[in-house]
Design brief:
- It comes from Geoglobus ahangari.
- Pfam families: PLDc_2.
- This is Phospholipase D-like domain-containing protein.
- Keywords: Membrane, Transmembrane, Transmembrane helix.
- The chain is of the alpha+beta class.
- Strand 5 and strand 6 form a beta hairpin.
- The protein is about 25% helix and about 35% strand.
- The chain has 2 domains: about 110 residues; about 300 residues, Endonuclease Chain A (Endonuclease, Chain A).
- The strands form 2 sheets. Strands 16-12-11-10-13-14-15-9-17-23-22-21-18-19-20-24 form a 16-stranded mixed β-sheet, with helices on both faces.
- The radius of gyration is 26 Å and the shape is globular.
Length: about 450
C-alpha cells in the first residue's frame, strides 16, 4: 500500500475539520484598503493568496489595511496585509484534512461582496438593502390586462417608467433614469404635473419594480402603468406591506440622479380585462434582497405554469433557471412555459422543449398587444413579479414579487394561462423556425435573381 492510499485512509477515519471562506470583498467602493476576506475554521488553518500567508482560528477578517477597514465597517480586522486582485484570483484556506478554494472571476465589479450560501457562492453589492419578505393575510383583487384601471388618491408610485397617465390625485414617483429606449414622452409630461425622482445606480442595473402605496392600500403590477399588454395587477390592503414598500421607496431616493433622454409617444389601448376578488395569505419580496422565483420552481410538485415575455438562460456561472426547470421535470412535474412572439425566444423554446415533461409555446393573440406578464402557477399558490427571467431581473435589478397562497387564485390564474395557451392564435416554436427558414430561402432566391 503506497503513501497516497494511506493518506486517503487517514482522511476518511480522521475527524473532519470545518474550514470555510465565507466572504470576499476584493474591490470595495472608496478606499481599496478596506478590501477583505472573512474565513472560519475550527482549528488553526492557513489562509493564502499564494503571496501572503495568515494563520487563523475561528472567525477571522483579513483586510488590506486595518485603518481603512475600521473606518468603513466600524471595527478592526484580525489581520492586515492582503492584496486581492480585482479581476479574480485563487485564494485558499488550508486546514489539516481539507482545503477550501475560491475565485471570483465569474462576475467582477466594484463594490461586490461574494458570500457563501447553502447552494454555493453568491454575491451582492455593498450598498444593496436587506429588506426581509413580509407576510400578511389580506383582502384584494387581481385584474388581468388589457383592462381599464385608474389609480386614484394620494400616495407613492415606483416603476421602471410610466407609459400612460392612469392617475388621478396627488402622487410622488420614483422611476429609472435611463430605461431602454428612453423615457416615454408621457412620463416627461407627467413629470411636470407630479413630483418625479429619477434613479440611477451602479449597484442596481435597473429600477424595474412596479408598485404603488396609498395609505394601507398596495398595488403591485407587472406593467408600466399602461394596460394594453397581457399583464397582471394585484390590488390589496395591508398596513404591514404598505410600510415595507414605503421604506423601500424612501431608501431608494438616495439613488436620485438626472433624467435621461426622452423617447417619442406610444399608442395605448384598453380592454375588458378579467378580475377576481380574494382573501388569502400573501408574501411580498423586494428583489434582489430576497428572490422567491427559484424556490417556487423547486417546490412545485404536480404541475408548473410559467408565463413570461422571454427567457434568457445566460447567467454568471451555469444556468440555474434552466437547471431548476429541468429538476422539476425530473420530479415528474408537468411544466408548461408560455412566451411572447419574439424571435429571440425561438432558440430557448427549442432548448426547453427538449427537456422531458416540459412544453413551450410562443403565443400571439388578437386580445392583447404582447405577453408582458411574469407569473408562475403551481400547487395552491401563484407568484406574480415585475422581474424578467434573465440575470438582470433575477439578480441585478430592483424588482418586486408577490406570492399568493390560495387555491381560488391558483385556479383563476391557471385558467388565464390555459385560455392564452389553448384558445388564442399561437405559434409553435418549431413551426416558427420553419417559417423563418422559408422567409430566408425566399430572400436568397430574389437576391440571386437580382445579381444575375
Amino acid at each position: 500500500m503506497n503513501w497516497v492510499n494511506l493518506f486517503l485512509i487517514f482522511l476518511i477515519i480522521a475527524p473532519t475539520t470545518a474550514c470555510k471562506i465565507l466572504e470576499v470583498n476584493p474591490n470595495p467602493y472608496g478606499d481599496e484598503g478596506a478590501e477583505y476576506v472573512k474565513v472560519w475554521c475550527d482549528e488553526p488553518c492557513i489562509f493564502t493568496d499564494e503571496e501572503d500567508n495568515f494563520t487563523v482560528t475561528g472567525t477571522a477578517y483579513i483586510a488590506r489595511n486595518s485603518t481603512a477597514f475600521k473606518e468603513k465597517f466600524g471595527f478592526y480586522p484580525d489581520f492586515e496585509g492582503i492584496k486581492l486582485s480585482n479581476s479574480g484570483e485563487d485564494i485558499y484556506l488550508i486546514c489539516s484534512n481539507r482545503t477550501d478554494k475560491f475565485n471570483w472571476k465569474f462576475y467582477r465589479d466594484e463594490g461586490v461582496i461574494y458570500y457563501r450560501t447553502d447552494r454555493g457562492w453568491d454575491f451582492r453589492y455593498e450598498d444593496w438593502s436587506d429588506f426581509d419578505p413580509v407576510r400578511d393575510y389580506v383582502r384584494g383583487s387581481i385584474i388581468i390586462t388589457p383592462a381599464e384601471y385608474i389609480l386614484e388618491g394620494k400616495g407613492i408610485v415606483a416603476s421602471y417608467f410610466i407609459a400612460e397617465d392612469n392617475f388621478k390625485g396627488d402622487f410622488e414617483f420614483i422611476v429609472d433614469a435611463n430605461p431602454v429606449g428612453g423615457i416615454p414622452m408621457e412620463e416627461y409630461i407627467l413629470s411636470k404635473k407630479y413630483k418625479f425622482h429619477f434613479l440611477s445606480s451602479n449597484s442596481y442595473k435597473n429600477f424595474h419594480y412596479k408598485f404603488a402605496v396609498i395609505g394601507d392600500r398596495v398595488v403591485i403590477t407587472t406593467e408600466n402603468w399602461k394596460w394594453d399588454n397581457r399583464g397582471v395587477i394585484v390590488d390589496f390592503k395591508s398596513e404591514k406591506i404598505a410600510n415595507l414598500l414605503r421604506d423601500v421607496f424612501y431608501n431608494d431616493l438616495k439613488y436620485e440622479s438626472e433624467m435621461g433622454k426622452v423617447d417619442g409617444s406610444k399608442e395605448s389601448g384598453s380592454g375588458k380585462g378579467k378580475r377576481i376578488d380574494f382573501e388569502a395569505e400573501i408574501e411580498v419580496h423586494v428583489m434582489p434582497d430576497s428572490n422567491p422565483v427559484f424556490d417556487f420552481i423547486e417546490n412545485s410538485r404536480g404541475y408548473l405554469y410559467i408565463a413570461a415575455p422571454y427567457i434568457n438562460p445566460e447567467w454568471f456561472e451555469g444556468s440555474p433557471l434552466i437547471d431548476a426547470i429541468e429538476n422539476a421535470s425530473k420530479r415528474g412535474v408537468k411544466v408548461k412555459i408560455m412566451l411572447n412572439d419574439y424571435d429571440r425566444n425561438l432558440k430557448v423554446a427549442e432548448l426547453l422543449n427538449s427537456i422531458p415533461n416540459v412544453e413551450v409555446k410562443i403565443v400571439k393573440s388578437a386580445e392583447f398587444d404582447e405577453l408582458h406578464a411574469k407569473y408562475f402557477v403551481s400547487d395552491g399558490k401563484v407568484l406574480i413579479t415585475s422581474a424578467n427571467l434573465n440575470k438582470y431581473g433575477l439578480k441585478l435589478n430592483r424588482e418586486i414579487a408577490v406570492v399568493i397562497y390560495d387555491h381560488k387564485v391558483e385556479e383563476f390564474m391557471k385558467n388565464v394561462f390555459l385560455e392564452d395557451w389553448e384558445n388564442k392564435k399561437e405559434l409553435n416554436a418549431v413551426f416558427s423556425l420553419i417559417c423563418l427558414g422559408f422567409v430566408v430561402l425566399i430572400a436568397l432566391y430574389f437576391i440571386r435573381r437580382i445579381n444575375k
